[in-house]
Structure formats: structure tokens, C-alpha cells
Design brief:
Length: 395
């Protein structure tokens, strides 16, 4: 992989004692407040302990709250190639039932800040670390040689790039990338907009939970925050599901959901799409006496920063309470949160409180996280951001 890495600048950072302790415990990030010295520009450099001991090589950025992102003492052109190869090997070993999944998951693949998603023959890349930006050209060359994609798109429009001092943009880096892609998942077809869709085009991290809920769903189903219908397709195609109601506030998302349902042979007589605010729609359905046997709640992140957590907790709790008020005995609730600051224990707690308010008893069937192609680092809670609890109402 000759020429993949740009030359390393002579940069260095010196950790404060707390930063050294954090790094030695295995966390790949050190915050700016935990450093004694930082370079004046972003790049790849050497990290030193307060006494001068060389600890590691890292992505350094004086303008970011996450000022150090650990790359390891073995960082080199060969290490980059090996990490990319291991990332591909993991996805191959997972035997993913579909052609849309995450190839590289940042810290989970020891490539901090770097995300590469596959949508069939197209790759979508996101880089959220300024220090890695000069290496992207080499990564693209490696991807072209190793995978020969039809096209590579940079979805560099995320707000986190501004916090790294990077420009926001969306542009084709290699080949051609159509405005709409068709991918498949567990035998079902899904349309993806790689330019404007959430994240890199779709919520790949819920792929395994979508399939699982499709296996367990039954009766009349309600999909709240349905977005473009990825959960809905699995629910509607389940032979045990009688009917499906999909709720979202976004008209473009509902149109895409309708297209995805139609592509899989599901018409409006089986799946009804409703544009509505979930917090208002659920009480209105309860007032009409509507009941469901399967409910999926997959709301957007309500706690994007720690200060948001108290209000987000109350909102998640109320949302789950309103959903449970519609759930029959024997029914299933699949409740998710992608807010990192809402820990899995808090999600379970608020669902339990919502059930207690209604005099209900819930049995836990499964606890789930992001799909396995989004690997979590043990001891690094930031890498487990998605959590789901699947419960059955037994009283």
C-alpha cells in the first residue's frame, strides 16, 4: 500500500497526570483539559507522559475537546493496512445477511474518527478527526485497489467536523455515486439516499434489531418514528402481523417509507403511513380505544449533550408511557435510544417507571445494542451509544 500514509509531522503532546491515567487505562481519548502541552496544529504526533516517557502515537488537535485520539505505538503505513484488512475480515466473518453494512467503525476498528459504510457497490466515508484528514487520499486509493467500488462518497457534512476545525461538504471522491441506491437486507429491498439520508444514508446500526423484531412481531403493529421504513418493511412482511401503522413527522421520510414498502410488495391497505407528532398521536390513538400487539419506538437522540439528560429522560419516559398505554397483554414493545448519555440502565429504568405508572408488568425478552459491524470497545462506554430493550407485557 505504498504512499498510503502522509509523512508524519514532528508534533507532540504532553499529558497531565489525569490524562496519562486515562490513556493507561485503555481509553483512546484524552480531553484538552487533561494535557500540559499541545501542538499548535492538528496532525499525527507523539504523546508523552508528564515525566517525558513516550506512551503512544495519536491524532492530535488543539482545537478539539478530544485533543488526543490514540493510534498505538505501532502506528505506521503497515499498521493502517492491517487495520483496514482486519476490519474487512470481521465483516466477512459476521456473515451479514445483506449488502449494506459498516466496514470501518472508528475506534472500534482502531481507526479513530473514521467511518466507512458499504451500500452495495458504493462506499460512503466520514472522517471526524482533523489529524486523519491528510491520510484520506491514501485510504481511498487502498479502497479502490482492494474493493474496486463503483464510487466513493464523502459525507463530510456532520456538525462534528466543525468542532474539529474541518470544512463540511458532501462530494464524490471516486467513480460515480447515484442519487438513490438499492440495497438488500435479509431478503428485503431498501432504497437509500446516500447524499441526504441520515448518517451515511441509512441507520445500519439497527439492522440486526430490525430483523429480530420482524421475527417476533405479531398482531397489529405500530412503528413510531418510522423514518424511511426500514423497520416497517420487516414488520409488514412478517406473516404474523395483521396490520401496520407508521408514524413520522417528516413528509419526505414517509414518501421514502412508502416506496420501500411498495418495493417489497406492501401496499397501503396493509401499512398505513401517518404524518404526525408522536407525543400527540399516541394519546389520540388511546382515546379512540386503539390497541396494538407490537410497538416499535426508535426516536432520534434527545440528549445530544450531558446537560440535556434530565429533560431527555422525562421525554423518553413519557413517550414509553404513552406507547405502553396502547399495548395489549401479550404484546411486545421494542424501545430504543441512540443518546449516548442515556445509559442502558436508565433506559430500562424509565421503561419500568412508565409501566408502573400504568399498573403493568413487563417481561424482558432481550437487551440489544448496535449491530455487530459497529463494534464496541470494552471499557469505553462512548462506543456503546445505541441501546434497545425488547419487553413483553404480561399484565
Amino acid at each position: 500500500m505504498e504512499g498510503t500514509l502522509s509523512p508524519l509531522p514532528a508534533l507532540r503532546a504532553i499529558l497531565a497526570p489525569r490524562g496519562e491515567q486515562r490513556l493507561r487505562r485503555g481509553h483512546p481519548w484524552v480531553y484538552r483539559s487533561d494535557l500540559l502541552e499541545l501542538p499548535q496544529r492538528a496532525g499525527i504526533g507523539t504523546v508523552l507522559a508528564p515525566d517525558g516517557e513516550v506512551l503512544t502515537t495519536a491524532l492530535l488537535n488543539p482545537d478539539s475537546q478530544i485533543a488526543v485520539r490514540d493510534l498505538g505505538r505501532d502506528w505506521s503505513e503497515r499498521a493502517l493496512e492491517e487495520r483496514l484488512e482486519r476490519a474487512l475480515a470481521l465483516r466477512s466473518a459476521l456473515h451479514i445477511d445483506g449488502d449494506a453494512y459498516r466496514l470501518v467503525h472508528g475506534e472500534g476498528d482502531r481507526l479513530p474518527g473514521l467511518v466507512i459504510d458499504r451500500y452495495g457497490e458504493v462506499l460512503v466515508i466520514q472522517n471526524g478527526a482533523a489529524g486523519f484528514e491528510p491520510q484520506l487520499e491514501g485510504v481511498i486509493r487502498w479502497l479502490a485497489q482492494r474493493l474496486a467500488p463503483r464510487g466513493v462518497l464523502a459525507r463530510h457534512d456532520q456538525a462534528s467536523r466543525e468542532r474539529e476545525g474541518l470544512p463540511r461538504e458532501c462530494r464524490v471522491l471516486l467513480g460515480e455515486v447515484p442519487q438513490q441506491l438499492q440495497v438488500w437486507e435479509a431478503g428485503l429491498q431498501l432504497l437509500v439516499d446516500p447524499y441526504r439520508g441520515q448518517k451515511t444514508g441509512a441507520f445500519l446500526d439497527q439492522r440486526e434489531t430490525r430483523q429480530r423484531l420482524g421475527q417476533l412481531a405479531h398482531g397489529d403493529a405500530l412503528d413510531v418514528f418510522c423514518y424511511q421504513g426500514a423497520f416497517a418493511v420487516h414488520l409488514a412482511r412478517s406473516p404474523a402481523v395483521r396490520s401496520l401503522r407508521c408514524v413520522d413527522t417528516s413528509l419526505p421520510a414517509l414518501r421514502q417509507a412508502a416506496a420501500n414498502l411498495a418495493r417489497n410488495g406492501v401496499g397501503p391497505q396493509r401499512a398505513r403511513l401517518v404524518r404526525a407528532n408522536a407525543f400527540r398521536e399516541l394519546p389520540e390513538l388511546a382515546a379512540k380505544g386503539q390497541r396494538f400487539q407490537t410497538i416499535n419506538l426508535d426516536p432520534p437522540a434527545l440528549a445530544r449533550k450531558r446537560a440535556d439528560l434530565p429533560a431527555a429522560y422525562r421525554a423518553y419516559r413519557e413517550l414509553n408511557r404513552r406507547a405502553l398505554a396502547l399495548l395489549d397483554v401479550g404484546g411486545l414493545l421494542c424501545s430504543s435510544s441512540c443518546s449516548f448519555h442515556l445509559a442502558p440502565t436508565l433506559l430500562e429504568q424509565l421503561v419500568a417507571e412508565a409501566a408502573a405508572d400504568l399498573g403493568q408488568s413487563l417481561r424482558v425478552l432481550e437487551r440489544r445494542a448496535q449491530s455487530a459491524d459497529h463494534p464496541e470497545l470494552l471499557g469505553v462506554p462512548e462506543t456503546r451509544y445505541l441501546k434497545t430493550i425488547l419487553v413483553e407485557r404480561i399484565r
